[in-house]
TrEMBL record:
Its EC number is 6.2.1.45. GO terms for molecular function: ATP binding; nucleotidyltransferase activity; thiosulfate-cyanide sulfurtransferase activity; ubiquitin activating enzyme activity. PROSITE patterns: UBIQUITIN_ACTIVAT_2. The gene is uba1. Keywords: ATP-binding, Ligase, Nucleotide-binding, Ubl conjugation pathway. One of its GO terms (cellular component) is cytoplasm. Residues 804-930 form the Ubiquitin-activating enzyme E1 C-terminal domain. It comes from the Eukaryota. The lineage of its organism: Eukaryota, Metazoa, Chordata, Craniata, Vertebrata. This is E1 ubiquitin-activating enzyme. It catalyses: ATP + ubiquitin + [E1 ubiquitin-activating enzyme]-L-cysteine = AMP + diphosphate + S-ubiquitinyl-[E1 ubiquitin-activating enzyme]-L-cysteine. It is an enzyme of class 6 (ligase). Pathway: Protein modification; protein ubiquitination. The keyword Membrane does not apply.
Length: 935
């Protein structure tokens, strides 16, 4: 029996990423839930792992069977010395059966089944888990029904059936704070004919309404097979009951008997459950592999099942209603009539028996020889390593190289299950490698602590990549993904790419010469917040949080070296034409005017900065655009009142030591300022208040002639520039003792108060300001299961595009979508094509530029008009004659070294050249790059 925490508190440090998926209410309900899991083979332990990581109150595991060899194919907590022992201690259920929700999961080789029975009715508190929407209103009509129009800044995103409420409406105040009303798109709400006239403003906000659902229908994952598999799984139970064993792997006789049993069962069914004509070929394959036990299938079905457990416990997200079937028969040979033999798939009394039953011993030997590069040892990386260990990847002559430069933090423990509390501060790659070696001692895994990129190409060089069979990404940023994608395209290595975002997950497979690459298509860039909105006209908490983050990064920077003479800086600033003035002023300010000498100086600085940001600057803004002229000061483009639409009229704040938020800011800002200058800080609020009593705050008088830009275009036209200095403090969100989040939360909520924007708590502030990616173990497990199924196909050398599957899922809805990868776009060449040129001639001498140009003219009928290497131009048709004459008879590497002014490293075996060419008709043609081999 596993137990987590107590009922009273949620450990936000541990569950922070999951809290962003589930929310506090759902997490509390789950924290009070007791779960029984019956069956502790590979699928059962996968479900138990995910549920325990999720943070339920208790998990009771039940199993009357003993450990067998085939269990070790996927049961990652069993060891060879456990053979013959009971798979789990039989424990008494902690909750009565009345009202209990039932989830049944089953895997048979390449097939999986999931059934959920949550009773006739269930209350779902949040069907999709998305953040509630809000939008600013531009008009509400008096009508039946009334119509709400939102500002045109962006699509509002509301859908018919959503419930909303209203705030800040001027005029039609009957809607402010009303009970949630159901809407229809476009814009219809309740009857507003009896309301007062709408004047301006207002915000419409989505409200999540608990929904009572009936769960009596059925739902399948693949549209052409589920009914057949529904009969097939019943036939498995019938066969096992009759013979006391499953069909023998790849036995033709057992397959025939199994199909006969399925037909007999089908004939006894009635209504929609009966299949008109059973797919015998599909059922035979189910029989052939049903004795198999595959870790990736268990990971996928186990992730789904664990998420359904969480839904049952919390009422968060829509449950599966009721059946789900899954298969990955594409993992078998691409030859339709392919048959393995019983001998090839017979048990060997080894840990891979469950996998050999499906793919045979030859496939197992191939897996053991694989050499794979795993980039990242976080949540996805840990799951991948566990699956690699179970399937026997690199468990012979092969090797898995895993690299990750990060150390383990407490928040990782909730979903990176290879790590334990005692591992915090250790290197992820080292710790994960040691953990999976315990699961499978035969696996050869080598941990690195390198960031992948141009700086480590001496480590991950030509020899390294050419020795690989493939690459698997487990990264959390797009730049690193695109870099690895380019390397895989260049070295023509298959790449398995995946990612998660809360309950959403995706898998992409990249196959040389067959599919497009990861970089072939990109998501649209994240929409940025206009600078003027941040500086002067925020209207949402996201704006104030970004402003607070900018404040942090702008304020707490490393001061220049103390060896710089302040008097020299002062004289320099006064010199005519001194450039750049902003940088010099910043240096002088850091060294002279702002440099603290005591804790009291730090508190005084924080108090005065508070006054500047939340009082003085707001007063200056209102001096330029007075609120009492709201009906007469108009914008140039629309003629609307200035303080209307997205522009919220602010008000200055008055500092008070009795205001907790004001003191939060001063304490956090003073401590950060003290850290910057090496001054001892303090959290003694009484002492801070005492210091504040003696702080002199200069009287502020708004100035005339101060230009405040009302649009980004104005700001751009003003050529405004900001001096940059090296940052000392790196913004860290997971440390609650460093004052970083204290400052961000206080700064943001004070500015929100300036503009009458509802504040937000620390938890949500951390999510938004930290751009934190929500994560939950269930999605990670399911995604990695799909990745490893694609790995099986790659290792077998599948050549057909339709054999591979890109996948997308959203466990909250739930939704599962699979599609063939997009083929590599092909004109004359694809992204996988290139010119291969060997630099060394038969004579032993290297090719000259003249010979290089002649080679393309003779071999490819192309005239090179421009030739470059990186940013260095090596040749062009418009090059001065003297320079051209100088280069034509030089070896290519000598030209590269001379132009780039960099020596070629000994690790470099080839150079990449880019070409512009004309064909024989003197027309421009697009051509691929050149790989020029020098060693």
């Amino acid at each position: 029996m596993a137990k987590n925490g107590n009922d009273a508190e949620i450990d936000e440090g541990l569950y922070s990423r999951q809290l962003y998926v589930l929310g506090h209410d759902a997490m509390k309900r789950m924290q009070n839930s007791n779960v029984l899991i019956s069956g502790m083979r590979g699928l059962g332990v996968e479900i138990a792992k995910n549920v325990i990581l999720g943070g339920v109150k208790s998990v009771t595991v039940h199993d009357q069977g003993v450990a067998e060899w085939r269990d070790l194919s996927s049961q990652f907590y069993l060891r060879e010395e456990d053979l013959g022992k009971n798979r789990a201690e039989v424990s008494q259920i902690l909750v009565p059966f009345k009202g209990i929700k039932l989830i049944i999961a089953d895997t048979r080789g390449l097939f999986g089944q999931l059934f959920c029975d949550f009773g006739e009715e269930m209350i779902v508190y949040d069907t999709n888990g998305e953040q509630p929407l809000s939008a600013m209103i531009s008009m509400i009509t008096k009508d039946n029904p009334g119509v709400v129009t939102c500002l045109d800044e962006a699509r509002h995103g509301f859908e018919s059936g959503d419930y909303v409420t209203f705030t800040e409406i001027q005029g039609m105040t009957e809607l402010n704070g009303c009970q949630p009303v159901e809407i229809k798109v476009l814009g219809n709400i309740c009857d507003t004919t009896g309301f007062t006239d709408y004047v301006r403003g207002g915000i419409v906000s989505q409200v999540k309404i608990p929904k009572k659902i009936k769960v009596l229908m059925t739902d399948f994952a693949k549209f052409d097979r589920p009914a057949h598999l529904h009969v097939g799984f019943q036939a498995i139970h019938a066969f096992q009951k009759k013979h006391s064993h499953l069909p023998t792997p790849w036995s033709q006789a057992d397959g025939d008997e199994f199909v006969a049993l399925a037909k007999e069962l089908n004939s006894s069914l009635t209504g929609s459950a009966k299949v008109e004509e059973l797919d015998e070929a599909l059922l035979k394959k189910l029989a052939y592999v049903s004795a198999g036990d595959l870790a990736p299938i268990n990971a996928f079905i186990g992730g789904l099942a664990a998420q359904e457990v969480m839904k049952a416990c919390t009422g968060k997200f829509m449950p599966i209603t009721q059946w789900l079937y899954f298969d990955s028969l594409e993992c078998l040979s691409e030859e339709g009539d392919f048959m393995l033999t019983e001998e090839e798939c017979a048990p060997r009394n080894c840990r891979y028996d469950g996998q050999i039953a499906v793919f045979g011993k030859n496939m197992q030997e191939t897996l053991a020889k694989q050499r794979y590069f795993l980039v990242g040892a976080g949540a996805i990386g840990c799951e991948l390593m566990k699956n690699f260990a179970m399937i026997g990847l690199a468990a012979g002559e092969g090797e898995v190289i895993v690299t990750d430069m990060d150390t383990i933090e407490k928040s990782n423990l909730n979903r990176q299950f290879l790590f334990r509390p005692s591992d915090v501060t250790k290197m992820k790659s080292d710790t994960a490698a040691m953990a999976v070696k315990q699961m499978n001692p035969s696996m050869k895994i080598t941990p690195h602590q390198n960031r992948v990129g141009p700086d480590t190409e001496r480590v991950y060089d030509d020899d390294f990549f050419e020795s690989l069979d493939g690459v698997t990404n487990a990264l959390d940023n797009v730049d690193a993904r695109m870099y690895m994608d380019r390397r895989c395209v260049y070295y023509r290595k298959p790449l398995l790419e995946s990612g998660t975002l809360g309950t959403k997950g995706n898998v992409q497979v990249v196959i040389p010469f067959l599919t497009e690459s990861y970089s072939s298509s990109q998501d649209p860039p994240e929409k940025s917040i206009p600078i003027c909105t941040l500086k002067n006209f925020p209207n949402a908490i996201e704006h104030t949080l970004q402003w607070a983050r900018d404040e942090f990064e702008g304020l707490f920077k490393q001061p220049p070296e103390n060896s710089i003479d302040p008097k020299f800086m002062e004289r320099t600033l006064k010199l005519p034409g001194a450039q750049p003035v902003e940088v010099l002023e910043a240096v002088y300010k850091s060294l002279v005017t702002d440099c603290p000498h005591s804790w009291a100086d730090c508190v005084a600085w924080a108090r005065n900065h508070w006054q500047c940001q939340y009082n003085n600057n707001i007063r200056q803004l209102l001096h330029n655009f007075p609120p009492d002229q709201v009906h007469t000061v108009l914008t140039a483009d629309s003629g609307a009142p200035f303080w209307s639409g997205p522009k919220r009229c602010p008000h200055p704040l008055e500092f008070s030591t009795s205001n907790e938020l004001h003191m939060d800011y001063v304490v956090a800002a003073a401590n950060l300022f003290a850290q910057t200058y090496g001054v001892q800080g303090s959290t003694d609020r009484a002492g801070v208040i005492k210091i504040l009593q003696d702080v002199k705050v200069p009287v502020f008088t708004p100035r005339s002639g101060v230009k405040i830009h009302v649009s980004d275009q104005e700001l751009q036209n003003s050529h405004a520039s900001v001096g940059k200095m090296e940052k000392m403090l790196k913004l860290r969100f997971d440390d609650d003792t460093n004052f970083h989040m204290d400052f961000i939360v206080a700064s943001s909520n004070l500015r929100a108060e300036n503009y009458d924007i509802p504040p937000t708590d620390r938890h949500k502030s951390k999510l938004i300001a930290g751009k934190i990616i929500p994560a939950i173990a269930t999605t990670t497990a399911a995604v990695v299961g799909l990745v490893c199924l694609e790995l099986f196909k790659i290792i077998q050398g599948h050549k057909k595009l339709e054999s591979y599957k890109n996948g997308f899922m959203n466990l909250a809805l739930p939704f599962f979508g699979f599609s063939e990868p997009i083929a590599a776009p092909k004109h004359k060449w694809t992204l996988w094509d290139r010119f291969e040129v060997t630099g060394l001639q038969p004579s032993g001498e290297e090719m000259t530029l003249r010979q290089f140009l002649d080679h393309f003219k003779n071999e490819h009928k192309l005239e090179i008009t421009m030739l470059s290497q990186g940013v260095s131009m090596l040749y062009s048709f418009f090059m001065p004659a003297a320079k051209l004459k100088e280069r034509l008879d030089l070896p290519m590497t000598e030209i590269v070294t001379k132009v780039s002014k960099k020596k070629l490293g000994k690790h470099v075996k080839a150079l990449v050249f880019e070409l512009c060419c004309n064909d024989l008709s003197d027309e421009d043609v697009e051509v691929p790059y050149v790989r020029y081999t020098i060693r």
